Amino acid sequence: MASSSRLDAKIPAGPLDKKWSQYRSTVPLVNPANKRKIEIIVIGTGLAGASAAATLAEMGYKVKTFCFQDSPRRAHSIAAQGGINAAKNYQNDGDSVYRLFYDTIKGGDYRSREANVHRLAEVSGNIIDQCVAQGVPFAREYGGLLSNRSFGGTQVQRTFYAAGQTGQQLLLGAYSALERQIGMGTVTMYNRHEMMEVVIIDGKCRGIIARNLITGKLERHFGHAVLLASGGYGNVFYLSTNAMGSNVTAAWKAHKKGAFFGNPCFTQIHPTCIPVSGDHQSKLTLMSESLRNDGRIWVPKKQNDTRAPGAIPEDERDYYLERRYPAFGNLVPRDIASRAAKERCDAGYGVGASKLAVYLDYAAAIERYGIGEANKNSIHNPSKEEITRMGKAVVKEKYGNLFDMYKQITGEDPYEVPMRIYPAVHYTMGGLWVDYNLMTTVPGLYALGEANFSDHGANRLGASALMQGLADGYFVIPYTIGAYLSKEIGTAAIPTTHEAFVAAEASVRERIVNLLNIKGKTSPEMFHRRLGKIMWEKCGMARNKQGLESAIVEIQALRREFWSDVRVMGGADEFNTELDKASRVADFLELGELMCLDALTREESCGGHFREEFQTEEGEALRDDEHFIFVSAWEYLAESEWELHKEELVYENIKIAQRSYK
């Protein structure tokens, strides 16, 4: 059953390029004295959570922040490598707010909400200014100007970066702002705390139940509003580029309390990851998309070619992205690059021991940079060795830590031999459905960053996750939350002895006791691994009706087995990582089923959602705009039971077309 009656995206009226500025100027405000009476809970301390908590506290609100890590600095945002987009047009290569907006909508395969994406493009420039002011050490050109590079899906250079550790540097900036507020007493920080439940009173979100992961104690916390900035759910696949602790629990608890889940099947597969080396692995390593700036991707033209890459002459190499997509070449969007790599490997052209890899080659870039350096230094007729030496120095400056990381993991020197890469689960475009204010379908409950569905459609362009997280935290939620909180200034803090808090804590305790009392034979890790195998094989880079239907049956059976055979060591009132893991896996086992249901329902291919039944003659994604130009927003009813609500997407400023990067 599908319905659209309960979804109001609250998109402001007026022309697209004026919506945000007009709305920002008219949204209700909370005066400084009243802000001091209002408490806000923020779950997660990555870029979205840390920036939101710091900004709201700076504005005068009382803020409580929670993270399950030992420090906010360990949030998974720190792992982002390649960069952050902004429409600054520093390169004078034709960039603009509209072009960033257009590239993002097109990159998302026309499944994004126009108003949100335009707002994102508008505030992108402010983010860079904010971060520079915080001291984020962005790369700079020789003259001191900020440097830019290209990312997939664009034909301009708009990606600001700090070597291959952009996420780390941006997070340290947001963390510094957060720590300043903690020091001033305006933010109370709860490290090693995991949100286990949201508390609803009279239809509004009024707080959370959190578990102290050191002592096991359950705690009740009141808030006039709760902001979920808890990241994505890529670890439902077990093997992904996410930190091993990344989970869906906070968002899933909100979903089961009434927050609709948007586009759960839209998963991004990143094309440049170090290939799986064996069954012992529990984590995959990302090689930044920035490497596609200068690296050339290829496979041998001969099937099952076992020669070393250096022994394969140029005319026997297939630079398949350059061949298939001449206009964008190696910088096509991630979903297209990933599927192209899979297609070549499936056809027998893969490299390495597993044959599930392609080459990412820097030889041409090293030569090009070396010649440029020789010219700059007036070295005439340089030798091949001199060119190589100078070229390597330039590459080392731009990408050195990524090259070092690859060498440490694989034992191969990417300055000498091409990297081997293969697609892996990376980012999730789906998440809690939110309106223009970033509020979920539960009043007072917001979702920011990767935890919401909002800006990316069916595929996220590279370097836009950091942009969205910081946009939501620094420049969107501080304004939009006023629309709700301005009506809450008369609400006194609700004591946590309220029956809703008592009932919520009791339900969390009951679930923990149930997990501990099963005393089966199988570890939570093994169930997670088995779920990931089902998801990757049947709801991964390619999906089909038969596979999805069987996946749903398999996941339901696996869930029943979990609740009868999982073995959780240790007790409830202590530091117990096995219990933490089991609780998170239980949520993944429910989410996995919804993802497969969503993928089964969406009978088209778009972005990261590739249904094998719906493709062009050339193997590209075939959208069905007549029937599926909507956001899937799923309402939880009962176990294995959801109702689909649709937010119809309207494009008034962009001509919808079949996506082409040729």
Automatic annotation (TrEMBL):
FAD-dependent oxidoreductase 2 FAD-binding domain boundaries: 40-466
Keyword Electron transport carried by entry: no
Membrane spanning residue stretches: none
One Pfam family cited in the UniProt record for this chain: FAD_binding_2
Family matches, as InterPro entries: FAD-dep_OxRdtase_2_FAD-bd, FAD/NAD-bd_sf, Fum_R/Succ_DH_flav-like_C_sf, Fum_Rdtase/Succ_DH_flav-like_C, SdhA/FrdA/AprA, Succ_DH/Fum_Rdt_flav_su, Succ_DH/fumarate_Rdtase_cat_sf
Record keywords: Flavoprotein, Oxidoreductase
Cofactor section: FAD
Residues in Fumarate reductase/succinate dehydrogenase flavoprotein-like C-terminal domain copies: 528-661
Domain of life: Bacteria
NCBIfam families membership: PRK07573.1 (NF005749), sdhA_Bsu (TIGR01811)
Name of the molecule in the record: Fumarate reductase/succinate dehydrogenase flavoprotein subunit
